[in-house]
């Protein structure tokens, strides 16, 4: 009798796509989010349950879709996303001085969040199709795919999301072999700009000085980072109150629901962008350290899964997605601690929200789908 190939049972296929450790980590974040939300914004718990359910469904569903299908769909997803971004500028809903949403009647959609998936997926697909034929100009072509939606998002204006979409898309170019000689000038220019800002910040932040390419509120956020006391009851209020909350939490925190800064509403946006300040005040350093240990597990597991993918596009997308989630977390933490300007970036998988949470879970689900893609010839690592 010859050897027979034993096909895995259906539940084994599910476990292979729904990586148990990744799924458990994600559910752990959701449970933590619900626990913290009982203090940060209990009136939003019912809505958050819906958001968490949709996000979990997005992860499970996207992981089941073969990654080759995602690659085939990537041009359509990208095109629909760009058209939606244009529609936002034309007929979008304006709130808090920004036009970022489309009113679908039953819900509001923020297309810029969905571009966190569409941009790196389309860029990865482009390099996949050009594999074996890559030329130096292919990176320039892919750069156009990244810059176009980033510019549309910046126009809304939404600096935080524009930076994240640009960075995640740029990560695909980097992992696809973008030369350091092309990256280094931008790094040097950024370092020079930061040094100049630190040296001449007082003069440049004067009210009569205009910053080309930036709105007044964006200039104000950067100037506030240099000196929050410049406007303690205005632009500097977020940073100052978050610093007070973080410092007062100590090692063990004041206890969930016992934080004065959180419960007396001194922390603005305490259920979204500044929820980390609530965690630091009420759960202390131990709570924050435990949370970031969870992010570390997610980061390591994500990269481990990515390296299993049998397609180069899967490895490119997975590395960019996991790196993007790490940068998302870092930017939020730096913003709350006063180490970066306030740019409106929520804490991944913990902050209250719908579209942002779903988009991040879609990225993880597609990463898990890429990890299940076999190597040519049917082998696996």
Write the layout of secondary structure elements.
Elements: H1 10-17, H2 20-40, H3 45-64, H4 67-91, E1 93-95, E2 98-103, E3 108-109, H5 111-129, H6 136-154, H7 159-175, H8 180-204, H9 216-226, H10 237-249, H11 260-263, H12 275-306, H13 312-336, H14 355-371
Antiparallel strand pairs: 1-2, 2-3
Helix pairs in contact: 2-3, 2-12, 3-14, 4-5, 4-6, 5-6, 5-7, 5-13, 5-14, 6-7, 7-13, 10-12, 12-13, 13-14
Can you put this structure into words, describing what you see?
The protein has one domain. The longest helix is centred in the C-terminal third of the chain and has 32 residues, at 275-306. Helix 4 crosses helix 6 (136-154), helix 5 (111-129) runs antiparallel to helix 6 (136-154) and helix 13 packs antiparallel against helix 14 (355-371). The model has no long low-confidence stretch (mean pLDDT 87). It has 14 helices and 3 strands. It is an all-alpha fold and 381 residues long. A hairpin with a 2-residue loop joins strand 1 (93-95) and strand 2 (98-103).
């Amino acid at each position: 009798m010859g050897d027979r190939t034993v096909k895995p049972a259906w539940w084994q296929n599910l476990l292979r796509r729904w990586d148990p450790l990744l799924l458990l980590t994600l559910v752990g974040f959701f449970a933590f989010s619900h626990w913290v939300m009982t203090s940060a914004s209990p009136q939003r718990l019912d809505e958050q349950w819906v958001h968490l359910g949709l996000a979990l469904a997005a992860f499970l569903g996207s992981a089941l879709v073969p990654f080759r299908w995602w690659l085939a769909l990537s041009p359509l997803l990208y095109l629909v996303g760009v058209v939606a971004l244009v529609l936002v500028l034309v007929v979008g809903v304006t709130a808090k001085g920004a036009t970022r949403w489309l009113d679908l009647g039953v819900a509001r959609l923020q297309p810029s969040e969905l571009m966190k998936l569409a941009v790196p997926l389309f860029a990865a697909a482009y390099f996949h199709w050009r594999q074996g034929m890559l030329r130096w100009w292919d990176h320039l072509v892919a750069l156009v795919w990244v810059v176009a939606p980033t510019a549309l998002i910046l126009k809304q204006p939404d600096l935080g999301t524009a930076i994240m979409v640009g960075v995640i898309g740029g990560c695909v170019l980097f992992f696809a072999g973008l030369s350091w000689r092309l990256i280094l000038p931008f790094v040097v220019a950024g370092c020079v700009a930061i040094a100049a800002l630190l040296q001449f910040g007082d003069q440049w932040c004067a009210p009569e000085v205009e910053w080309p390419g930036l709105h007044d509120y964006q200039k104000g956020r950067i100037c506030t980072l240099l000196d929050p006391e410049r406007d303690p009851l205005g632009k500097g209020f977020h940073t100052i109150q978050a610093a007070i909350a973080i410092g007062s939490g100590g090692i063990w925190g004041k206890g969930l629901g016992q934080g004065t800064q959180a419960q007396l509403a001194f922390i603005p946006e305490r259920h979204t962008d500044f929820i980390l300040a609530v965690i630091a005040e009420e759960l202390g350093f131990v709570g924050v350290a435990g949370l970031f240990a969870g992010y570390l597990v997610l980061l390591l597991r994500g990269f481990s899964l990515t390296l299993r993918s049998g397609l180069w596009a899967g490895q490119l997308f997975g590395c960019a997605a996991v790196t993007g989630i790490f940068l998302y977390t870092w930017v939020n933490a730096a913003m709350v601690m006063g180490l970066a300007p306030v740019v409106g970036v929520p804490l991944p998988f913990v902050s209250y929200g719908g579209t942002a949470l779903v988009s991040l879970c879609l990225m993880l689900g597609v990463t898990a789908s890429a990890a299940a893609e076999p190597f040519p010839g049917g082998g696996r690592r």
